[in-house]
Design goal:
By secondary structure, the protein is an alpha/beta fold. It is built from 11 helices and 10 strands. Helix 3 runs parallel beside helix 4 and helix 4 packs across helix 5. It is globular.
């Protein structure tokens, strides 16, 4: 049987219609807070030493339901203040628009305040990518568009993205924008394949948005499968992992990256060894047969 290989995974990717090139994997900082500055600096260096350049954070990272709002950004800012050379080695991505405990707010007043607060906590003059974290259905997309455009014009942020937006919400915001939406951040994993079948990644390709895949290991279910479907997916991933001499998790990352929309998985681990292990994803060469075998296992039924 002829095995048709997919294109080899590139080590770098461009963020949508921007001129920013980043590594094909990002590092997520939602569990970054809660350590001292020295330990945090060591972890930042470990990530950079792996070759990762895209650092994904948010103003709400560090919030525990009561306090801690902004703690991840504050800690990163303290690290950058102690070693100013680090800033030039990374592309910063942050998010805002969630006002604890739950309501979403994308009004001009709130977004302007959120962007300024993130800049202050991080101790930087500009953020390369700023994303609305959750859609606020009570704010007209035209108001959001004007607010984001003004933030770009002022130099506070360089490019805009969205997170957890539906296709219609993306289309509505894009309609009122004079700037491109360069990224969209949905949940994508071998156990969360909705985006591949409901048109989300198709829209990303049409609009030239780079998908940033959050929870690429399905909240730990790839490492610890908990039902028949997860076990079936893991079986296929393990088969490929053994072929290329990499870990199951690295294989799971690479499966996402092989999609033609060129998604960038966000590594959630805060352990240097696991972050380094994740970079083995670039060693995997997928055939169409093998990639679809994982998809079929994830669907739980044969392809039509």
């Amino acid at each position: 049987m002829i095995m048709s290989n997919l294109p080899k995974i590139s080590p770098t990717r461009r963020l949508g219609q921007s001129d920013i090139e980043v590594t094909s994997m990002a590092w997520g900082m939602w569990r970054f807070a809660g350590r001292d500055v020295s330990e945090a600096a060591q972890l930042i260096h470990a990530v950079l030493d792996c070759g990762i350049t895209l650092f994904d954070t948010a103003d709400i990272y560090g919030f525990n339901g009561t306090d801690g709002f902004g703690d991840a950004e504050t800690l990163l800012g303290e690290v950058l203040a102690k070693d100013k050379s680090l800033r030039d080695r990374m592309i910063l991505a942050s998010k805002g628009g969630i006002m604890p405990p739950l309501p979403y707010d994308s009004s001009t007043a709130y977004l302007e305040k959120a962007i300024d607060a993130s800049l202050s906590r991080l101790g930087v003059d500009t953020i390369e990518l700023w994303q609305i974290h959750r859609p606020d259905i009570l704010t007209h997309p035209q108001e959001i568009a004007r607010t984001l455009e003004q933030a770009v014009q002022s130099g506070k942020i360089q490019h805009i993205g969205v997170s957890n937006f539906t296709q219609n919400q993306i289309a509505a915001l894009d309609h009122f924008l004079d700037l491109p939406i360069v990224t969209t951040q949905p949940e994508i994993s071998a156990l969360r394949i909705d985006t591949m079948e409901n048109g989300e990644l198709d829209q990303a390709m049409v609009m030239d948005m780079t998908p940033l895949a959050w929870s690429p290991l399905a909240g730990g279910r790839i490492a610890s499968p908990d039902d028949d479907r997860a076990h079936a997916v893991v079986k296929e991933l393990d088969r490929i992992a053994e072929t290329f001499g990499v870990s199951r998790t690295a294989t799971a990352y690479s499966w996402i990256m092989a999609h033609p929309s060129r998604p960038i998985p966000i590594i959630g681990s805060q352990r240097a060894d696991r972050i380094a292990d994740a970079m083995d994803a670039l060693k995997v060469q997928w055939s169409r047969q093998d990639w679809y075998a994982v998809l079929v296992a994830a669907r739980g039924v044969p392809l039509p």
